[in-house]
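chain and backbone:
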Amino acid sequence: MKKVIRLTESDLVRIVNKVIKESGYRTKFENHEYWIDEKGNYIKFDPDLENAGYYDFDYEPYSEIDNIEDMPEDIRNDLYGDEIGEKMYNAYKERFGKFKYARKKEN
């Protein structure tokens, strides 16, 4: 039997931020002024650098996606998981815009 779990928006934000904090990439929704790094820090970048897709030497240029299917599988699984995750992603996207991510460069 499946369980129905109700989450508030603040629960959803807290869960997503926790997963991001434990990962090797940064994420951002378009309308936010900041990126969230793998340590959970909120980072504000120069808009000109961000528009060019670069913000520091530790991360690759960002990728912007329109659909959850366009997100790399490992990031999608970490952040959203199963079909409930797709609903969470779509609700978040509707409110905040396109999703952006940047992977940490390998040394």
About this structure: The mean pLDDT is 76. The beta strands are 25-29, 35-36, 42-43, 63-65, 99-103. The chain has four helices and five strands.
